[in-house]
Amino acid sequence: MLSHPRLYVGKLPETIKKQDLINAFAPYGDIEDILMKDDFAFIEFSNLVSATKALLDMNGNLFLN
Questions:
Q1: 1 lies in some domain
Q2: Is residue 63 part of a domain?
């Protein structure tokens, strides 16, 4: 079975919360899971189309909070 497409999100501020990532990435499609570790996260989408849209639109953006 193939796993869901996963995006790496790096250089996150210490204050970022899981809900912040959900709010930022949910408009692109259904999120299956978010794994947060130190200053990075992996966001797993339900399908490749959603992950690709998020990658193309969010690549290079900064998270400030």
A1: no
A2: no
